[in-house]
């Protein structure tokens, strides 16, 4: 089976630099993949990406060694299984607030006896190899988003779920839950303290911890703190920023 480079990078003590895809375009995904990201997350929670656009985007990413990741819109076992069958190598699940929710998420990602994932890897075998089913349980990465006060209250129980590989800080929802509004590169003491608590708990439980950031500078700071999965902006934001910069430069002249 094709190796999951996320696991290799983490095993060697490195940090995965992850890109984010909001644009429902296989060509856009292919361009981003050829830019050299370690992984690319296709976001099905926020934005216009649906299942019909997901599959061509996964195919486009497969033209490189960039690892395909999907954030599902919710803790929906049916959709989780479908994105795995389509060939993604990691699933990010939002709004995990309890141990039971984490167990349901992990179980949907694992074939029996470790979980209850149904068999039908129609494209996963094309991407991962004919022996995909034999090795999927130890290859696919499960990543639960920690982004609410409820998740903080139940953090130890969530992180103790067997089969959970990583956790991912959602700074906007976390900030909102703590009464500070949305935003990515957080500086409020209460939010910073919560983020550092999540990182420390992840380390204690032997889990990889990731975070969404808005700039390379903040992402670098988070990597130095110990985050091993840093997401920087998104394809739509990067395109908008670059376009605005060009216009500003020309008009400024």
What does this structure look like?
The chain has 253 residues and is an alpha/beta fold. It has one domain: Phosphoenolpyruvate-binding domains (TIM Barrel, Alpha-Beta Barrel). Helix content is 47%, strand content 16%. It is built from 13 helices and 8 strands. The protein has helices at 5-11, 26-33, 51-61, 77-85, 99-109, 124-128, 132-139, 149-153, 155-159, 171-177, 189-204, 216-225, 235-252, and strands at residues 16-21, 39-43, 67-71, 90-93, 141-146, 166-169, 208-213, 229-232. Strands 1-2-3-4-5-6-7-8 form an 8-stranded parallel β-barrel, surrounded by 7 helices. The longest helix is centred in the C-terminal third of the chain and has 18 residues, at 235-252. The model has no long low-confidence stretch (mean pLDDT 97).
Secondary structure: elements and pairs:
Layout lengths: L4 H7 L4 E6 L4 H8 L5 E5 L7 H11 L5 E5 L5 H9 L4 E4 L5 H11 L14 H5 L3 H8 L1 E6 L2 H5 L1 H5 L6 E4 L1 H7 L11 H16 L3 E6 L2 H10 L3 E4 L2 H18 L1
Parallel strand pairs: 1-2, 1-8, 2-3, 3-4, 4-5, 5-6, 6-7, 7-8
Helix pairs in contact: 2-3, 4-5
């Amino acid at each position: 089976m094709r190796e999951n480079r996320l696991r290799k990078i983490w095993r060697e003590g490195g940090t995965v630099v992850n890109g984010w895809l909001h644009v429902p375009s296989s060509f856009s995904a292919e361009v981003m993949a050829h830019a050299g990201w370690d992984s690319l997350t296709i976001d099905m929670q926020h934005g216009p990406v649906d299942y019909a656009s997901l599959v061509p985007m996964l195919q486009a990413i497969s033209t490189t060694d960039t690892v395909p990741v999907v954030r599902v819109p919710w803790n929906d076992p049916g959709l989780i299984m479908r994105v795995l069958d389509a060939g993604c190598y990691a699933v990010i699940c939002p709004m995990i607030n309890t141990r039971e929710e984490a167990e349901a998420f992990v179980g949907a990602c694992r074939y029996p006896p470790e979980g209850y994932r149904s068999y039908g890897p129609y494209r996963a075998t094309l991407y991962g190899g004919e022996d995909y089913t034999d090795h999927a349980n130890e290859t696919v990465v499960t990543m639960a988003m920690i982004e609410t006060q409820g998740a903080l209250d139940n953090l130890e129980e969530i992180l103790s779920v067997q089969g959970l590989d990583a956790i991912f800080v959602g700074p906007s929802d976390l900030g909102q839950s703590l009464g500070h509004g949305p935003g990515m590169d957080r500086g409020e003491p209460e939010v910073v303290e919560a983020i550092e608590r999540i990182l420390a708990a992840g380390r204690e439980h032997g889990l990889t911890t990731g975070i969404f950031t808005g700039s390379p500078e903040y992402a670098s700071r988070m990597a130095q703190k110990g985050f091993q999965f840093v997401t920087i902006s998104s394809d739509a934001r990067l395109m908008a920023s670059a376009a605005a910069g060009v216009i500003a430069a020309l008009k400024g002249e």
